């Protein structure tokens, strides 16, 4: 007898966004669209959005009293931030529910299943998160918490897991008083003092754990730095850009590697390095890096700095953008800002407007006219892959020079080195040794001549 497993329903979620001064309605809508995709990646089902225009976030609960009640209509909460001791809070909640029932008003969303998660498109203070939870009766996450949860789920390598855990603990540390720490305040003899001592103990444990993880990460970073130095003789191009722009698809197309390609945000967290295929001489290495996103938590940027060093140290940045996304110009700017913060903002860069296969010919031509310095391509089109490959190769060959080398037979290891690091145009042998005609970067030619000079 066969049975079919029924997939568990995804938690229902309401998004909250505030239109602050300087933010247009389309920008807010785009930001909430992106937040909805983040929620989908995390396994949440977005059922509603609550938005409000304000001069600043409400210090108590992000939105005003009216919008807070509208939000609570989707979650089944009271819509009121309770004050006072727990007994007083329960009385106020009961009174508010009775008042609503007497008015005969049906809260927004009351005829649909309740949402159990509220996701806010802003960074919340601990007190704001606590107040929203009390007013809505739902779990409350801010944008940073959602991103951290996705990173934690997608981290595969030891380095990525360490980086995410450091960022997660740094996020949790200031919120201890509003989470686990508050549950233990007031317990035992001495009441409040004992609770505070537990809280300080938790904080000290967190600090010690973060320090321990950072020491382990430093050792891994040291090894990664050594590997980067060893690759110094090869040209390196780093694929960078907004998350889900198609970097991993280009990685697979350019190198023939089986890297993970998924239509999800932050599918790639670990830097992958492969040789351009078909291989060139000298080899050109392509690296696929973690994607960027608007409002990326600072602790994550700091934790992933070593991973993003691949971008900082690359000879060429290939910035990939999703041309089919109307918000791609803003995404390009976000990526540039993050790269600049890493010290990688001034290097050579090639902009690729990806996913051109999703555009009609007129839209594609319009992009080419509006972005004359960019390549409008699709990683799914072999001809487009060839175009990008040739542009990358031509970049690394632009400064190459030709030279003649005579390698004595006693130094044939230099011949092997020349084949590995330079393009050998001709090779012949006479009484003096092996005569090589090579094409390579000037520093490579100088290094080969230095090896010959040392005899």
Q: Taking Cα atoms only, what radius of gyration do you get, to the nearest Å?
A: 28 Å
Q: Which word captures the global form?
A: elongated
Q: Would you identify the CATH architecture of the largest domain?
A: 3-Layer(aba) Sandwich
The CATH class of the largest domain: Alpha Beta
Proportion in β-strands: 15-25%
Provide the spatial order of strands within the biggest beta sheet: 6-7-5-8-9-10
Distance between the termini: 78 Å
* CATH homologous superfamily designation of the largest domain: P-loop containing nucleotide triphosphate hydrolases
Q: How many β-strand runs?
A: 13
Helicity level, as a percent range?
Answer: 40-55%
Our count of domains comes out at: 4
List SSEs in N-to-C order. Answer: EHEHHEHEHHHHEHEEHHEHEHEHEHEEH
Please report the number of helical segments: 16
Note the main sheet: 6 strands, mixed
What would you call the structural class? Answer: alpha/beta
Mean of residue pLDDT values:
82
CATH topology of the largest domain: Rossmann fold
